[in-house]
């Protein structure tokens, strides 16, 4: 995120770092990613760390409400830690454990802190085009992840669309004024103009969801968002960051982020023996796009201001709605 968290100060971060046994000598805000807040930290021993603060009031994929979101985030981070510690998956950038054993330390009732090793490498960007060789490297990584016995804390991820009730409310109220802030009326106009198409995509989602559930495919540990923005290219290959979306699901939850083309998964099928289901790939690509629209619409219906983050959200909403209106879930 570009902006600092609401009502947050650096002293609170320093106190949280001490909860991990770290005494920070330098702290610098890192305006990267979209959703959580990040800092680079150097401790008294000269080691560097990457600190991530989650706004638990807005972490719905981990749980509804701050208390549930903290519990869900802890399950996700614990899953990543076990994959690294138990299974030795070197590509998993897992969180540091506090002396208590916890992977997430609450800073107050709203914010939770995780700390990760600061690793050298070249970071990718969301939406970045990958070469066939790069996609192959990611598929090899996912094949390894999907073959692992699920750690006990891993959450199950239902295919049901997150934020669906809010999206349907936005569609039903697209004829009345939205008053949350500067993007409210533009967002309402965009949703109203494409309401027919968005409702059609919801019906497509329901059809695909029924088809995929009916096949009863085996569930595996999935990362959830293995796009280039969550990949760090180091000397030994790709590292996978941001494990807050980890969960049990069909493999296509991850594969849909790598490509929309079933032919691109031949390497994965050869390694795992899993015949990739094109309907499941389409389902999860559509799920991502619709959940983005739900999230952005909720943001702009609520109180907000114009800042770099809401500008980015507006661009994302516009782009995603236009793709959905054209019958596509858009690029990943």
Task: Provide tags for this entry.
332 residues; three-stranded antiparallel beta sheet; alpha+beta; five-stranded antiparallel beta sheet
Can you tell me about this structure?
- The chain is α+β, with helices and mostly antiparallel strands and 332 residues long.
- Helices cover 42% and strands 14% of the residues.
- The strands form 3 sheets. Strands 1-2-3-5-4 form a 5-stranded antiparallel sheet, sandwiched between helices. The chain has a 3-stranded antiparallel sheet with strand order 6-8-9, with helices on one face. A two-stranded antiparallel ribbon has the order 7-10.
- Strand 8 and strand 9 (237-240) form a beta hairpin.
- The longest helix is centred in the C-terminal third of the chain and has 24 residues, at 278-301.
- It starts with 9 loop residues before the first helix and ends in a 7-residue tail after the last helix.
- The model has no long low-confidence stretch (mean pLDDT 93).
Shape descriptor reads globular
Mean pLDDT: 93
The major β-sheet equals: 5 strands, antiparallel
How many alpha or pi helices? 10
Query: What is the oligomer described by this structure?
Result: single chain
* Low-pLDDT sequence parts: none
C-alpha termini separation = 19 Å
Q: Could you spell the SSE succession in H and E letters?
A: HEEEHEEEHHHHEEEEHHHH
| Helix content estimate | 40-55%
Strand content: 5-15%
Q: State the secondary-structure class.
A: alpha+beta
* Major sheet: arrangement of strands: 1-2-3-5-4
Q: Write down the Rg.
A: 20 Å
Say how many strands there are: 10
């Amino acid at each position: 995120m570009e902006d600092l968290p609401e009502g947050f100060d650096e002293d609170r971060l320093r106190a949280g770092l001490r909860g991990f046994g770290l005494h920070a000598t330098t702290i610098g805000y890192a305006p990267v990613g979209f959703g959580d807040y990040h800092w680079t930290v150097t401790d008294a021993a000269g080691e560097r760390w990457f600190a991530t603060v989650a706004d638990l009031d807005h972490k719905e994929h981990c749980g509804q409400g701050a208390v549930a979101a903290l519990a869900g985030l802890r399950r996700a981070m614990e899953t990543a830690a076990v994959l690294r510690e138990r299974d030795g998956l070197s590509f998993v950038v897992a969180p540091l454990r506090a002396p208590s054993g916890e992977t997430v330390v609450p800073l107050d009732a709203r914010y939770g802190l995780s700390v990760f090793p600061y690793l050298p490498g070249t970071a990718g960007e969301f939406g970045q085009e990958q070469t066939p060789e790069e996609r192959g490297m990611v598929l090899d990584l996912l094949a390894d992840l999907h073959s692992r016995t699920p750690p006990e804390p891993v959450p199950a991820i239902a295919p049901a669309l997150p934020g669906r009730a809010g999206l349907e409310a936005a569609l039903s109220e697209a004829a009345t004024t939205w008053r949350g802030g500067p993007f409210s009326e533009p967002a309402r106009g965009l949703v109203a103009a494409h309401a027919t198409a968005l409702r059609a995509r919801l019906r497509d989602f329901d059809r695909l969801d029924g088809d995929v559930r009916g096949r009863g495919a085996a569930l595996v540990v999935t990362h959830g968002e293995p796009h280039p923005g969550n990949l760090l290219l180091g000397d030994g290959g790709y590292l996978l960051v941001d494990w807050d979306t980890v969960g049990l699901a069909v493999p296509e939850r991850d594969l849909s982020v790598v490509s929309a083309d079933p032919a691109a998964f031949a390497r994965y099928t050869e390694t795992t023996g899993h015949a990739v289901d094109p309907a499941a790939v389409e389902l999860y690509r559509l799920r991502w796009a619709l959940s983005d629209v739900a999230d952005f619409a909720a943001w702009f219906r609520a109180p907000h201001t114009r800042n770099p983050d809401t500008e980015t959200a507006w661009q994302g909403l516009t782009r995603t709605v236009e793709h959905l209106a054209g019958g596509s879930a858009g690029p990943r």
